[in-house]
């Protein structure tokens, strides 16, 4: 029996494929799964960097730092192929693109794809404010910071409306990315598996993950209530079922991009970020 330690991110779109495994609705003989729910993306990034989990969902921008230790699951890369989840840059009042270079920027972590894309596509900012929790980021906009890179766009917009905040969209990472990448898909997050498990076990987990994701997508009526419970406990707030449902539907598209398109986006992302001195060189993208 092989035990796999899984660090599941407490975000609806990243969480839903894991819930059937967490609940025992989908299993694999010979594999024992141990779950911990990790509250923020930055915590996830640190968990893989320190190798305390075998499987997790780090930012695509983390891979250069963990490439010797983890495989990327080719069927589980969150990838934007249109502007629906294109990471808009938001403010509470009208701003021009040039204003970003002297603004106070809010991001949810220094190793995130959002911040890396901002550095690649915009470059400069006046001051950086790191606020790991998504809902806290929203509350800080206009108070602790001038602009926010909205990774979980649907959740951000919905929460802002409930708080009575009308956001102004200055630009988006997708709009800028598509111009410099030749229209390549934009990587955002990954699912990785430790190489210490061995390739055979990693491939078994890949198949298990795929079955769990498909089960979740066909049984959202079972998955969404559990997602709401897990999210509410991890984030310390009462999550709204409607926003969880909308987030999952948006992320289903991101997690079902064909692997050849995923690879196109990853290759372009790592090439451009290395050329600009933002990320270390990726020797090869070890995808299974």
Describe this protein with a few key phrases:
alpha/beta; 5-stranded mixed sheet; 42% helix
Give a description of the structure.
By secondary structure, the chain is of the alpha/beta class. Helices cover 42% and strands 18% of the residues. The chain is globular, with a radius of gyration of 18 Å.
In short:
The chain is of the alpha/beta class and 288 residues long. It has helices spanning 12-15, 19-22, 41-49, 63-66, 113-121, 134-140, 153-162, 173-180, 199-218, 220-235, 241-254, 259-275, and strands at 2-9, 31-38, 55-56, 70-72, 78-80, 88-91, 104-107, 127-130, 147-149, 168-172, 186-189, 192-194.
- From the N-terminal CA to the C-terminal CA, the straight-line distance is 22 Å
Tell me roughly what share of residues is in helical segments.
Answer: 40-55%
Count of DSSP strands: 12
Radius of gyration: 18 Å
Shape: globular
The class by helix and strand makeup works out as alpha/beta
Integer average pLDDT: 90
For the sheet with most strands, the description reads: 5 strands, mixed
Uncertain segments are none
Can you list the strand order of the major beta sheet? 2-1-3-12-4
Write down the secondary-structure element order. EHHEHEHEEEEHEHEHEHEEHHHH
